[in-house]
Amino acid sequence: MVDWQALFDEPAGNDPVALNLGSMGKGEAWVNGESIGRYWVSFHTSDGNPSQKRYHVPRSFLKPKDNLLVLLEEENGYPLGISLDTISRTKVCGLVSESHLPPVCGTRHDQSGEICQRNPDRRPNVQLQCPPNSTISKILFASFGTPSGDCESQALGTCHTSNSRAIVEKECLGKSKCSIIVSSHTFGDDPCPGIPKALLVDAQCA
Description:
Blueprint: E1 2-8, E2 17-20, E3 26-31, E4 34-40, E5 54-57, E6 67-73, E7 83-86, E8 91-97, E9 105-110, E10 113-118, E11 125-129, E12 136-145, E13 148-149, E14 154-155, H1 164-172, E15 177-181, H2 184-187, E16 198-205
Antiparallel strand pairs: 1-6, 2-5, 2-7, 3-4, 3-6, 8-16, 9-10, 11-15, 12-16, 13-14
């Protein structure tokens, strides 16, 4: 094992901070005595890439100057390749299916104990929220039907409601956060009756 230490200053701005440990092997990291967690960059996924390289450093752990990074490296990592990155989040997305039902009851307490309160009107919905001081400026993709993909890439499925983007734009543009109920009623049409549907939205914040 090798104990490695270095000092660094807090990055400017308010964007999230992450340690890029892509040059390391396996071990644990601390910043100002606070554990960032164990890392195992040498463990690769089936496609040959590290399972994780960046590790979040809460800004509450940091001082303006002279933050102490301590690494306990168990393999043969290269500490001079470490970088401190800031992550700028300019996109938000959501994928929710009609079958993604919320809890059917909440709880409250009174003198008789815990009571289940049923919420029959609650329906699955896609919720989008931009970082502080930004709003949803553009809908990059929206499809109610059978879209494929995830937050990295999207494509229309064989079932698609043509006004999906217009409905989402009306509900979300210019807002810091929005919620769209996932149902045929919201979009005014059922493009494929009898087939389970989902709503996939990808949006840009500015």
